[in-house]
Amino acid sequence: xxxxxxxxxxxxxxxxxxxxxxxxxxxxxxxxxxxxxxxxxxxxxxxxxxxxx
Length: 53
Prior knowledge:
This is DUF1016 domain-containing protein. By secondary structure, the chain is mostly helical. The protein has one helix at residues 14-49. The radius of gyration is 23 Å and the shape is elongated.
């Protein structure tokens, strides 16, 4: 098994990068929840929209 080289560097931007990753993840979760809600509501109300007397 190869040994991985440890890279040392400047980590001053690490907190900002972590915050950016978390913000992006939150946005993706919110979009997926909204999508699921729309699909659920459409599935619930679609039969009423296509109902004809």
